[in-house]
Amino acid sequence: MSTKKRFSIAPDLASGIRNTIQSASTNQGQLHYDMMSLDAIQPDPENPRKLSISHNEMVHGLLPTDPDYQKKIKERDALNELSESIKRIGIRNAIEVYKDGLKYRIVTGERRYWAAMLAGQKSVPVRISPKPEEFNLRYTQWVENINRQDLSLAEKLNNLILISEAHKSSNRGEFSEQALQNLLGISTIQAYRYFALLNADDKVIQLVNLGKINNLKLAQELCAMKDQGARNQVISWIRSSKDEVTSLVSFKESAGKKAASSTLSAGRSISLGKINNAQVAKKLFEIVLSDIKLDKYRHEFKNIDWSSSKAITKAFKSLFKSIELALSVEDPV
After folding, report:
1. CA 19 and chain centroid, separation
2. Which of 116, 124, 222, 279 gives the lowest tally of CB atoms within 10 Å of its CB?
3. Which CATH number fits domain 30-131: 3.20.20.70, 3.90.1530.30, 3.40.190.10, 1.10.3720.10?
């Protein structure tokens, strides 16, 4: 009589199979992989990573007369590197998409999408998921992008703005500095700097968006400056700089040279004499402050005690400093 052979599966392998089946059952109808035509996919228009180069320029080439030519060349070269990799080994990490009307919109993997197009691919592997909640979408994009060295501060800021807005609209509570730290898993000082940037005024935001500032620490230092005159000086200097500014060291050196060259000789000051009549002093103030370049300083001299010689002397010293600030640089636009 013949005996039946029995086959057994190793415990580790059996456990792995059970986990795979359980995972597939849990996500049934929610997540699956497929090959999808590039024509059926569209990038997320609010993705924090912004490419200057267009689809038409990637296919047909760039114009050297384009003012953003150098920037677009760098973007194209970076995508070409990924494109060559895709030609050799394909896309190993599927692009994540969700159904949006007649198309599928990208959650993560936009660079892979553009690089596949450059590589001449007609279709790409995708991971199709349900449409994510807005907050989860923006947070996922942050995680996907944050460790990339070429991500600009403007792109990080854009992503943070979208995260904070989604956080508020989804009733997750106040988007505080502590909430930001816990959410992103960053240090206290990083959270402080990002939160300062989120609440920065238009002047700082504009410098970031122009690419004049790409350093988070520098942006936070500008936000924290109390002396508006000095702050305006720095902003004007950064705006006029040809290259990206990474610290205030160069500004301090430049300001020191200007201060040295503006004096008649080292260690000497100019005496403007004495005024014995308070009314004459008051009239001088009115004449000097009528200059349009001193508009932003005028409010500082509204409450001078004209009966006190000490108060008048102190006011004159402050006035001279304001004049030096106003004349040393142009007012920011």
Report:
1. 41
2. 279
3. 3.90.1530.30
Maximum alpha-carbon separation in the chain: 131
pLDDT digits (tens, 9 = 90+) for 59-110: 778 888 888 888 888 888 888 888 899 999 889 889 999 998 889 999 988 8
pLDDT in tens, 41-72: 998 888 777 777 777 887 778 888 888 888 88
Are the CB atoms for 232 and 326 separated by under 8 Å?
A: no
Question: Cα separations (Å) of 53 from 66, 69, 71?
Answer: 11, 9, 8
What are the φ/ψ torsions at residue 167 (nearest 5 degrees)? -60, -45
Fold of 138-256: Arc Repressor Mutant, subunit A (1.10.10)
Q: Taking CA 50 as the corner, what is the angle to CA 46 and CA 54, rounded to the nearest 5 degrees?
A: 110
